[in-house]
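#lab-general

N.A. 3:47 PM
ok so I finally got the sequence cleaned up, no stray characters, all 184 residues accounted for. can someone with queue access submit it? mine expired

B.Y. 3:52 PM
send it over

N.A. 3:53 PM
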Amino acid sequence: MDAVRIQDIKKTLYAYRNGIIADRLRNAGDCHAVIFGLNIPQLMNIANELGQNLNIARELWNNSASRESRLLAPMLFPCDNMDFAEACKWIESVENVEITDNLCHKLLKKLPFAENLFLKYSSSGHDLLRYAAFRLAMNLLSINADCNRALILNSAKQELEAKCQLTKRLCDEIIEEIELGQQG
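B.Y. 4:20 PM
back already:
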């Protein structure tokens, strides 16, 4: 049954393809072999039509050659089925900032252990994993989640000292968000 649905999803992605956007993404260095050029609202519409489905979400995520598969998977994954170990596997397999942003925004921020994911990856030796941690922290702050803001603030300040270009802007935003919240 899911194999049929995967084929239907691929047909839908193909029907919505935008060659101009796909070419721009390729020229900008997107690492995916298959790029249909869909935007997030289009993918959200597809996700809303499909509904949540654990097996399809996992199959799409495992298709790391396709940009749209990687973007759609977190939208379809039922939050109650994501455990810490699987969340770590997903984070550790992200290939770029776009996939990381979407994963954090559409799935990881909703998990009860999201702050633990931040703690695990905020001091990683890999820039993109630290980026994922701080993106997740920013998402938690944006939904006013119950999290340790002092710890996130201190971690963001430490990260700025590392002078990582990938995380700099995000850490600046986190610091501003927390410090403005402390003033109010």
